[in-house]
Amino acid sequence: MEIKKIIVSTMAAALMAMPATTMAQDTVTPEAGIDFLSHYMWRGTDKGGITIMPTAKLSWKGASVELTGTTGIESKDPKEINISLGYKFDKFKVGLTDYWTSGKDIMGNDVYFDWDPKQNGHQLEANFSVDFGFMILSANTIIFGNDYRYKTLEDSEKRTNGDRAFSTFIEARFPFYWQGLDWDISAGVTPFKSACYIESDGTMLHRKDFYADKLALVMASVRATKRLEIGEVKTPIFAELHTNPFLKRANFLVGVSVQPFK
């Protein structure tokens, strides 16, 4: 439990730290784009097949607000609405992200305007990152919402007697340019047990972990991006090998971004 307290306390202090100087533009800068993915992978988790992911962002004097959504081609794929608030100064960035996924409230419905942590599908995450140039190191911890560990099927279904998990993901990214391509090598670990729930397939009970049930390397990926432009529209094309060493799984995906302005 001590490592959880250290991570949460450190990130809370970082979120409250407001520098005396700003280093960004004085005007509001808009960004928008749409990603088309052959497969949706997130932090080592398989989240569906072909996916459309629109994004809109406003930045001003180091502060930013970003809205991201996901919609799968197949009707069974869950939909997401993610809202992020961030503040960047020097090499540091702090922020909060509200993740919401359809069908994740206690009744399996798509109720968005409900923030009861034992009922809803929201997960509020505090994040902190440092850009060293050759490496970007980030820590992300869920501090509120649907993030509990359950031990029995009944508790999982009723969302009772769960222990708050503070699910945490620590990632190191290594971006570089080589042979006309932008490369990004990433690795992510969870330092302790993450949230989990129990489900039944009719004959057996299964535990589903948000990341893992212990310290584990849950994501390792390599992405190559070719930056293209068609007139004023940027259309980067990328390919990625995305793996989860803990689950011994791997996926290869491709995608294209359409960025009308940035």
Overall description:
The protein has about 260 residues and is mostly beta strands. It has one domain (about 1-20, about 30-260): Porin, CATH 2.40.160.40. About 10% of the residues lie in helices and about 55% in strands. The protein is built from two helices and 20 strands. The protein has helices at about 1-15, 155-160, and strands at about 30-35, 40, 45, 50-60, 65-70, 80-90, 90-100, 120-130, 135-145, 150, 165, 170-180, 180-190, 195-200, 205-210, 215-225, 230, 235, 235-245, 250-260. A twelve-stranded antiparallel beta barrel has the order 1-4-5-6-7-8-9-12-13-16-19-20. The protein has a two-stranded antiparallel ribbon with strand order 2-3. The chain has a two-stranded antiparallel ribbon with strand order 10-11. A hairpin with a 2-residue loop joins strand 2 (about 40) and strand 3. The N and C termini lie far apart (about 45 Å).
